[in-house]
C-alpha cells in the first residue's frame, strides 16, 4: 500500500472556491461537469445533486447562452432547497464577458469562473474581453481557472512563438512547441490577470490535452514555473476502459510527483449511463494511491480454476454497490467510515489470510470446498455463514460493524 507521506505535494497557493479550498495544504479535490442543457435548470440541478452525492466536490456547468446564464441563479436556489452546497463553476467561452456583465445574478451565484484564453476573442478584442472577465471576477470576488486547451490555443501567441522558434539555432519540434505555447499562454494570462487586479490566490491554472505523455510533459513544465494550484485532467479521455486507463496513467504519474491540486476524469458516458462514473474513477485514483479515502475499499478475488462458482463475484459486486450506496448517509453520520476495508475472497488459498487483513472479510468456498464461508473481523473469525442468504447476512455484519466501530458525528 502506498504511504501517503511518501508523496510530497508541491507547495502552491490556497484558493477558496465557495466552501472548498484548492491547493495549499488542502487534499486533492475531485470535480466533475454536467452534460445537461444548463437552460433546463431543473435537469441541471438534479444532475448536480447526483454528482455531488457521488462525491464531486466542485461541479462545472456550461454557461454559453443568455438562457443558460439566466438559469444559473435558479439552479443555485434549487440546490440550496435540497441542502446541496457544492460550489458551481461557470464554464465560459467566446461570450463570457457579455454574459457575466449582463446577468449579475449569474455572476454572483457562481463560485468560480473558468476562462479559456484561446476563446475570449482575437487581437484587440481578446485583450479587452479577457480584461472584462477579470474585472468582473474582481468585482464579485470570485476565483478564476485559466484553462488552456490544446484544441483552442491562442493562435496569435502560437504564431509569435512559431516565428521565434524558426529563428532559433535548434528549433523545437511541432509537439514540443505546442506544449511550450500552452504553458506560455497559461502563465502570460495569469500574469495579466494579476496586473488587472485579480489576487494571485484566486487563480488556478490548467493546460489540458488528450495525450497521456503530452499531459505529463506539460504539467511537469508548468509546475516548475509557478506556484498556482493546478487542475489536472485529459481534455477527452474517451469511453469505458480506454478513458479510465488513459486518465489513470496520466494522473497517477503526476500525482505521484506531487503535481496536481484538483482533478477531473473526463469520461464519455456510455449511452444512458450515469454521469457520476467519472467521479467514482477520480475518487478511486486518489484512494488507491493512498492520497485520500472516500468510501470503503473492497478487495476481491480475481478468480481462477479453483473458483468456478460465480458466488464470490456476485457478492463482491453487491457489497461494493451496497457500501457506495450507503456512503452518503454513513459519511454524514460516522467519522472515518471511509477508511473501512473489506475483502471478498473466493477460496481457501488466500481467502482466510486476505480476509484477516481487512476490517471485515469473508472467504467463500471454492470448487470442492465445504459449503461454508467464515467471516473475519479485525483478524478474528466471528461467524461462519451458510445457505442462500450469505449476501444479506454479510451486509448486516457490515452495518453492525460500522455502527459499533465508528464514532457518531455530533448533530449540527
Helix content: 40-55%
Low-confidence stretches: none
- Backbone shape: elongated
Distance between the termini: 35 Å
Give the strand content. 15-25%
Strand adjacency order, main sheet = 8-7-6-5-4-3-11-9
**H/E element sequence:** EEEHEHEHHEHEHHEHEEHEEHEHEHEEEH
Count of beta strands: 17
Question: What structural category arises from helix and sheet content?
Answer: alpha/beta
- The radius of gyration computed from the alpha-carbon positions, rounded to a whole number of angstroms, is 24 Å
EC number: 1.17.7.3
Protein name: 4-hydroxy-3-methylbut-2-en-1-yl diphosphate synthase (flavodoxin)
Catalytic activity: (2E)-4-hydroxy-3-methylbut-2-enyl diphosphate + oxidized [flavodoxin] + H2O + 2 H(+) = 2-C-methyl-D-erythritol 2,4-cyclic diphosphate + reduced [flavodoxin]
Family: Belongs to the IspG family.
Describe this structure in words.
This protein has 412 residues and is an alpha/beta fold. The chain is 44% helix and 17% strand. It has 13 helices and 17 strands. It has helices at 41-54, 66-81, 96-102, 104-109, 123-139, 155-166, 174-195, 212-223, 240-256, 277-288, 311-333, 351-357, 390-405, and strands at 14-17, 20-23, 29-33, 58-62, 88-92, 112-115, 144-149, 203-208, 231-232, 238-239, 262-263, 267-268, 297-300, 341-345, 360-363, 373-377, 380-385. The strands form 4 sheets. It has an 8-stranded parallel beta sheet with strand order 8-7-6-5-4-3-11-9. A 5-stranded mixed beta sheet has the order 13-14-15-16-17, sandwiched between helices. Strands 1-2 form a two-stranded antiparallel ribbon. Helix 11 (311-333) runs parallel beside helix 13. The longest helix has 23 residues, at 311-333. The two termini are 35 Å apart. The model has no long low-confidence stretch (mean pLDDT 95). [4Fe-4S] cluster binds at residues 301, 304, 347, 354. Belongs to the IspG family. Pathway: Isoprenoid biosynthesis; isopentenyl diphosphate biosynthesis via DXP pathway; isopentenyl diphosphate from 1-deoxy-D-xylulose 5-phosphate: step 5/6. Converts 2C-methyl-D-erythritol 2,4-cyclodiphosphate (ME-2,4cPP) into 1-hydroxy-2-methyl-2-(E)-butenyl 4-diphosphate. Residues 12-282 form the IspG TIM-barrel domain.
Amino acid at each position: 500500500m502506498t504511504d501517503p507521506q511518501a508523496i510530497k505535494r508541491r507547495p502552491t497557493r490556497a484558493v477558496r472556491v465557495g466552501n472548498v479550498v484548492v491547493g495549499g495544504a488542502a487534499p486533492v479535490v475531485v470535480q466533475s461537469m454536467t452534460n445537461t442543457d444548463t437552460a433546463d435548470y431543473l435537469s441541471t440541478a438534479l444532475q448536480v445533486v447526483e454528482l455531488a452525492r457521488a462525491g464531486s466536490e466542485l461541479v462545472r456547468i456550461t454557461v454559453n447562452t443568455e438562457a443558460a446564464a439566466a438559469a444559473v441563479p435558479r439552479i443555485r436556489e434549487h440546490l440550496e432547497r435540497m441542502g446541496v452546497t457544492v460550489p458551481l463553476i461557470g464554464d465560459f467561452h467566446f461570450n463570457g464577458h457579455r454574459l457575466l456583465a449582463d446577468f449579475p445574478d449569474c455572476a454572483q451565484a457562481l463560485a468560480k469562473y473558468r476562462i479559456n484564453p484561446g476563446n475570449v476573442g482575437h487581437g484587440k478584442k481578446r485583450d479587452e474581453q479577457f480584461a472584462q472577465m477579470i474585472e468582473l471576477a474582481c468585482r464579485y470576488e470570485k476565483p478564476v481557472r485559466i484553462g488552456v486547451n490544446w484544441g483552442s490555443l491562442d493562435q496569435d501567441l502560437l504564431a509569435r512563438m512559431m516565428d521565434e522558434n524558426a529563428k532559433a539555432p535548434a528549433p523545437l519540434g511541432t509537439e514540443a512547441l505546442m506544449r511550450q505555447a500552452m504553458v506560455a499562454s497559461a502563465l502570460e494570462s495569469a500574469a495579466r490577470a494579476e496586473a488587472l487586479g485579480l489576487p494571485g490566490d484566486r487563480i488556478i491554472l490548467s493546460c489540458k490535452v488528450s495525450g497521456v505523455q503530452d499531459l505529463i510533459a506539460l504539467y511537469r513544465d508548468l509546475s516548475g514555473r509557478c506556484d498556482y494550484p493546478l487542475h489536472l485532467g485529459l481534455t477527452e479521455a474517451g469511453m469505458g476502459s480506454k478513458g479510465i486507463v488513459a486518465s489513470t496513467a496520466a494522473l497517477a504519474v503526476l500525482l505521484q510527483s506531487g503535481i496536481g491540486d484538483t482533478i477531473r476524469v473526463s469520461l464519455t458516458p456510455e449511452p444512458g449511463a450515469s454521469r457520476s462514473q467519472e467521479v467514482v474513477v477520480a475518487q478511486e485514483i486518489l484512494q488507491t494511491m493512498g492520497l485520500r479515502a472516500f468510501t470503503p475499499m473492497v478487495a476481491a478475488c480475481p478468480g481462477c480454476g479453483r473458483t468456478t462458482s460465480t458466488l464470490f463475484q456476485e457478492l463482491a459486486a453487491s457489497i461494493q454497490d451496497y457500501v457506495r450506496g450507503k456512503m452518503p448517509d454513513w459519511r454524514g453520520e460516522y467519522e472515518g467510515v471511509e477508511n473501512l476495508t473489506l475483502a471478498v475472497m473466493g477460496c481457501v488459498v488466500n481467502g482466510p489470510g486476505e480476509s484477516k487483513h481487512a476490517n471485515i472479510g469473508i472467504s467463500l468456498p471454492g470448487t470442492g470446498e465445504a459449503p461454508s464461508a467464515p467471516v473475519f473481523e479485525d483478524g478474528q473469525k466471528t461467524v461462519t455463514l451458510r445457505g442462500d442468504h450469505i449476501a444479506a447476512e454479510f451486509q448486516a455484519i457490515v452495518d453492525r460493524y460500522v455502527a459499533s466501530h465508528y464514532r457518531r458525528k455530533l448533530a449540527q
